[in-house]
Amino acid sequence: MDRNMAIKRKAQQLVQKGDVHGAIAEYEKLFEGGDKDPYDFIVVADLLAKRGSMQEAVRRYRQAVDEYAKTELYKNAIAVCKKILRISKEDLAIHRSLGELYAKEGLYGDAQIHYLEFAEGSIRRQDHDAALDVLDEVLKLSADNFDLSEKYVEIALRADQPERGGRELLRRAERAKLTGRIDEAEAIRERVSTLAPSLLTSFPKAPAEAGAQGAPGGSIPPEIGAARGGAVEAGARAPHGFEPSSRAIERELATAAEPESPVEERVEASEGTPPEPELQSHEELARGYLQSGNKDLATEEYWKASEIAFLRGDLARARELLSALLGVEPTHEAALRRFVDIAAQSGDGPAEARARFELGEVYLAHEEWDLSRSEYLRCLELDPGNDRARGRVQRIDTLMNGGPPETPIDLDSLPDERPPSSVRVRDEETAAPSGDPLIDLEEIIDEFKAGVSERISGEDHESHYDLGMAYMEMGLYDEAIGEFQVASKGSPMEVKCLEMIALCFLEKNEPASAARELSRALELPGYGPEETISIRYNLAVANERLGNLDRALQHFEEVYLLNVDFLKVASKVKELKQRVARAEDRT
Amino acid sequence: MSLINYSSREINCKIVYYGPGLCGKTTNLQHIYSRVPQETRGKMISLATEMDRTLFFDFLPLELGQIRGFRTRFHLYTVPGQVYYNASRKLILKGVDGIVFVADSQIDRFEANVESYMNMLDNLTEHDLNLERIPFVMQYNKRDLPRVVPVDDLERELNPRKAPYFEAVALRGTGVFDTLKVACKLVLKTLG
Q1: DSSP per-residue codes, A154-214
Q2: Which GO molecular function terms does the record list (chain B) (predicted)?
Q3: What domains are there in chain B, each with its CATH number?
Q4: Residues near A547 by Cβ (< 8 Å), separated by ≥ 6?
Q5: pTM above 0.80?
Q6: I need a labelling partner for A250 at 20 to 30 A (CA). Which of A339, A373, A450, B141 fits?
């Protein structure tokens, strides 16, 4: 451990001296010693990228991805994958990794996008096996994507693997059977009989009465559990070429929203009925699972259906599905959260209050005191008469503090507002001339300022003032002056902004500018002596620095008359009087 | 050193959240932002790189009441954790009134914590500041993850002067306010 620390420190020193090669060599020693810290891999990869060794950089980034994935830090792994894509746009495999990582995070839409990117690339490279492998994964996530299923069959045929295509068709047939669409199931089986007849011997024809509603949970074939087809058998050939993933997904959504038109697009020689929207399939499956007593799978299907509705903006439908879900699993945290979102968006206070109370109950059960308390408090804001919520808050306060909170931090009114999302500012990597040898601080500050100007409008005086204070506290006086100037324009904070600008000028040793700003502040109407006392004091300081001792004394005396205790002004007056007298003596 | 604006009668105190990359500094601020009432906080300024790393600094102003007629405002900052942003870290530490060191409890981040802690000491020295004289709180974050270093070990290595410490899961908010409250109290003490 000590050795590693020593190596890292040395490497950092080399980085600070601008010796990228030396720093990389040091880090390589770490890796030779078995270091697998993903952060170290990233640092080295960044350095390699700066040096222009892109392939090497990608190799190290990949190692970071693997290590993050091993420790289930999928978000970090995803971030690193994106970095790889930025420097190596043609890296096909990274799309597959991204697909897997997003799927593990439960972000199925993103997972599909990257899986499909990978599949498209694989097809371009004539690697049909790889494309089919990854499409297997996509179909698990989007089992009712008719286009995708058809494409899968087409690729399987192109790859001379009719059985693989046949299996996909059988999956759809089983799904149709499961949801009671026996005729469709038969039509699909007909296709299979010409495509891969041997498969039919292993999937015997099902009796017509084995519909969805009657399908016992245990009778669902294992492959249906994961992959749930449901599109109508069109019997039509899919168009050539592979549809870009984003469009495919858009189409999938459009299909659900407008079931009429996609049929025309899809089915050239259709024998079937319109394809079933994915949302509906999930809902039907949920009901099927529920009837067969499988609550977990039913919950999962309801959740998927509700998320599709929510993402599509159909709040009423999402709410309906969430209600069904919560009927099955009342403590489903994500569903309760989503319900809260929807109720809030719909302005349905009573429903939001109820959902927040339930959410509080869930957190309480997990001993998440802060979170549960927050939810009960929000519930009370919406429903002040809710004695149960009030009782819970008292109970939590007792548990946490032995009484109500004493600190000045008021948790009682939690804002609806979410933290503003980060402004994405590209992390350009540059060689730096100043301060840090690798990172140009000025450039970072410029980038930061640019990001801030996108985020904060000129009318947001408070935020500009706060930012001015932040810059001032760091000694970035020019930046601070800029922010205070924006904050002061037409705002009630003009006096205090002018004072802060003056203080910045004093720090910059520009007393004349400081005096000018302070004089302006004194001329503003509507401010009494108490509010301007510090302005007079600072004006005295500025004049003193300018050598205008008479004026300085005059302003210090004004302050003295207002408040003799203000910042030891009495001693300042005494000192100035002596200096003025000495100056007069000399003349 | 606190900044005082007499005309608006406000005291501004600066608390910096320090720690290695990805330890949860920004998450702390985000949680605070999401939980304190709107009227007591300003806008959170948080700019991220495409790698989801803090660009320059995160900033969250909070107003937590009055002391002798002065509004007391706490400015919470985070520093960028990556090794190569040291110039930014150094700048942000300027004029600091209190520090929260957010340590990542995971075993494989142990060295990164030590490294960041030492870097913090170096940077304070450059500002002629001494950790002994600055309100300091230690937060051991990510306690919910598997493979975490025992708190005793973290304490021995990172907190030899036995500053107040808290275990936290910033992502869920656990320990975030405990840390903040103590940091603020310690800073207020220094104001007399």
Answers
A1: HHHHHTT-HHHHHHHHHHHHHHHHHTT-HHHHHHHHHHHHHH-HHHHHHSPPPPTT--TTT
A2: GTP binding; GTPase activity
A3: 3-191 (3.40.50.300)
A4: none
A5: no
A6: A339
